[in-house]
Amino acid sequence: MRVKGLWKGTVELRGGKNVLTRSFHQAPLKVAKPFSGDRGELLLYLMDASPGLFNGDAQEIECTLEKGAHLYLTNQSSCKLHPSPCAVESRQIQKFHIKDRAVLEYFPEPLVPFQDAGHIGETIVHMESGGQAILGEIIAPGRAGCGEIFRYRKITSQFSVYWDGKWTVWDSLALEPDHWNSLKGIMEDYTHIGTLWVLSEKITKEHIKIIWGSLEPCNQGPVYAGTSLLSKNGLVIRMLGQSVWELQALMHNCWNLIRHELLGKPAFQIRK
Questions:
Q1: Does 240 have pLDDT greater than 60?
Q2: What's the alpha-carbon Rg for the chain, to the nearest Å?
Q3: Which of the two ends of the chain, N or C, has the fewest CB atoms closer than 10 A to its terminal CB?
Q4: What pTM value is reported for the model?
Q5: Is 57 exposed, middle or buried (0-12, 13-18, 19+ CB in 10 A)?
Q6: What does the DSSP assignment read for 193-250?
Q7: SS3 75
Q8: Residue 58 in 3-state DSSP?
Q9: Before 34, cis peptide (omega within 30)?
Q10: Signal peptide position in this chain (predicted)?
Q11: pLDDT higher for 61 or 216?
């Protein structure tokens, strides 16, 4: 049996407070009771009552941030991608609509593919002038404790951005370990992949210099990372590492730098 989880929500700024004004869910997806962060942002946890995604399963998330709203969105735990013995992959579709002066910060837990898993992920971000978004993603190589390193069939991650209706960013990452002639030639000794997207009209070359200053020392250790400007209004940071916690620590450090630069606020820790 194939399962489709669904969540659609809207966050608005009312009376100086961020409020979840609309929320619809379809099992196994749902959201925990929202609460306010120390700086006034709305904190929201997505929850999945299932053990993960099986072949043919789908999850769809669609969230709108109205003018001036601020949302930090995450989920409760890593997304487990179970085997797909048939040709139908599991799917995740994430759509975000960021209005003027709204801020989205989205940091889901890592994707963890099991042996023979197949998965397609797609994230679409619609930005209005004045809006800002920071989105992170980490892809693990599999269940290391079970010896399932790069034993999945295929993972595809697609990311696109529209500014005021104009398509400005398209990124597609396709990982097919069975087609790799040499793991060394693709990943060297790294196993985990991280990506941090920063979408804002405030981003300049100076931000690249600031971020690179924090990334360069890391490249002497177990993490390798780099950053570059997008074609319009933003930057991207790519990371390679050997564990989830290494990439999460580096991503948090970059998030802290970016938050100070764009929002004048420090990053914070979320308990799970």
A1: yes
A2: 18
A3: N
A4: 0.95
A5: buried
A6: EEEEEEE-TT--HHHHHHHHHHHGGGGGTT-EEEEEE-SSSEEEEEEEESSHHHHHHH
A7: strand
A8: strand
A9: no
A10: none
A11: 61
